[in-house]
Amino acid sequence: MKKLLFTILLGSLMIFTLAACGSNGEEEATSSSDGSGESSSGYDLVEEGKLTFAASGEFRPFSMTTGGEMTGFDIDVGNAVAKELGLEPAQEKSKFAAIVEGVKTGRYDIAVASHTITEERAKEVNFSTPYYYSGAQIFTRPGSDYKTLEDLEGLEIAVSKGSTYVKFAEDVTENVKVYDSDVVALQALAKGRHDAVITDFLTGKEAIGQGLEIEGKKMIERSDQAIAVAKGKDKLLEDINAALETLRENGTLTEISEKYFNDDITTVPE
């Protein structure tokens, strides 16, 4: 009798153990959609359910800081992309020169910060398709005779730290002054400092519209601006490109652009 009871108890214990193992296996199988340990979206996000994107907050009208929150063209694009991905947007303010490194090391999921696509940056991060098109332009005080980059040879030129404009300045002079913000550089120019500033033509146009006494001179180049994504995050990059295409087709990008520039800077210039 005792032997029979022992056999029944042992059988019950084995059934319970197998059921528990099966339950654990199911939980492990459903804890990650792709078995990689990443989030359910497969994006490996900084914070589950949120798209953390960085901008400088000092590049009017692309990103500006008011009451601790950033607004502007880049910020609206970042919010719209997050919405298309089904994620909550989470903005992070950072000095422009540190943003690419922040994306590369996983501090931010992406950067929506008016980064020009360059070979040097492309070694550190991947880039989406362009979400707007711009270009570098020379700005001086009104009445200045300086018009071209060659005219600025040996003179004092101010640029923003980490921007592609640094190289243009260094090509013609060793006297380059670096600021954390393009806007601050333009303000310094208007107050009588430096001979010129090289920055995005839209930033200069906005500064002039805000009453800053500066003057735009020759355009140096046209450039493509894109969202920066860490290497290896191929699914996130693919879905961001799809989101941008949707936003382009449904007119959202154009609407955001016209809100800040009264013009569409999101289409390829002719």
What can you tell me about this protein's structure?
The chain is 39% helix and 26% strand. It has 9 helices and 12 strands. With 270 residues, it is of the alpha/beta class. Strands 1, 5, 6, 7, 8, 9, 10, 11 and 12 form a 9-stranded mixed sheet that branches. It has a 3-stranded antiparallel sheet with strand order 2-3-4. The N and C termini lie far apart (94 Å). It has helices at 2-31, 73-84, 96-104, 119-122, 165-170, 182-190, 201-209, 234-249, 252-261, and strands at residues 50-55, 58-59, 63-66, 69-71, 88-93, 110-116, 125-127, 132-140, 157-160, 176-179, 196-200, 215-230. The longest helix has 30 residues, at 2-31.
What are the defining features of this structure?
3-stranded antiparallel beta sheet; 9-stranded mixed beta sheet; 9 helices; 12 strands; alpha/beta; disordered N terminus; 39% helix; 270 residues
Beta content: 25-35%
Low-confidence stretches: 1-10, 13-38
Rg, Å, rounded: 26 Å
- Fraction of residues in helices? 25-40%
- The shape is globular
Structural class: alpha/beta
Tally of extended strands? 12
Count the DSSP helices.
9
- Major β-sheet annotation: 9 strands, mixed
The succession of helices and strands, N to C, reads: HEEEEHEHEHEEEHEHEHEHH
Distance between the termini: 94 Å
Residue-averaged pLDDT: 87
